[in-house]
Design a protein that fits this description.
Number of helices: 15
Number of domains: 1
Structural class: mainly alpha
Helix content: over 70%
Distance between the termini: 33 Å
Shape: globular
Radius of gyration: 20 Å
Order of helices and strands: HHHHHHHHHHHHHHH
Length: 324
Amino acid sequence: MKIAPEQVMASLRRPARWRAWEIVAWVLIWAMPLVFTQHAALINEIAILALFALSLDLILGYAGIVSLGHAAFFGLGAYGAALFAKHVMPDPLVGLVVGTVLGALLGALTSPMIVRGTDLTRLMVTMGVALVLLELANKFDGLTGGADGLQGVVMGPLLGRFDFDLGGRVASFYSLTVLFLVFLLMRRIVHSPLGMSVQALRDNRLRLAAMGHSVNARLAVVYTVAGGLAGAAGALLAQTTGFASLDVFDFHRSADVMLALVIGGVGWLWGGLVGAIAFKVMHDLLSAITPQYWTFWIGLFLVLLMLVGRDRLLHPARWFSRKP
């Protein structure tokens, strides 16, 4: 049976179409700072973590590149935006571009070490890059503030009109706007020929190479883009908090975003958003109830998630099903 080219094109475009529930979900997301005004700062943190998770999902879920040092891009973007605001220009949008470019440059510079290695090599290299940047930031304390952090970062008004308030409302809308724009970009990338080829690369690298496509070039491009998006997330954190410390390079940053992505699901654009919301809300609620043992409950949830499965955990009727 011969399939018409129009049918093939329609089949390829179908996953890229917006669904009604996606539009409703974004409307609800945009309404969150208005409805939960007292939690605007938490919403801002969720938006930043979701953007960070989207950048990791691009290389982990779609390209199959494992990383334990994604905080390297995040931290470089944070310090870049903070230093730019303190010494050059306090404009938030220009600082956001600076953090994004720095993250992309780091991704481009480190991509040759990533594309040729195995999964174990990538784990060690990515974690090593983050640790090196952490020690450099600690060593050059005259520039970065060292263990005390970079203080005195004052951001100018957003678009020249909206000052960052202590409640975090402007910051939350700012971060949500950047998150939405990145989400649109991710949809474009994932459903483009580049995105399709990267997913084919993840599933079978040898077959893609046999078709004449450059495997290393595609991995390098995706890794660079992901580095830029992670740098943007770091820049948002520094701009909305007015502070940057060695904590942005710490291993827990890479671990937290990995946990958020595991909770939400990899290889799914909404996975980063769902995981960020779930992780941050659990963190906030559990740390308020049991400040010393909140990690125990998150760990228990992750164990159940892995043993039971995401679908079965959300649909208890499937618990006794033999299907995975």
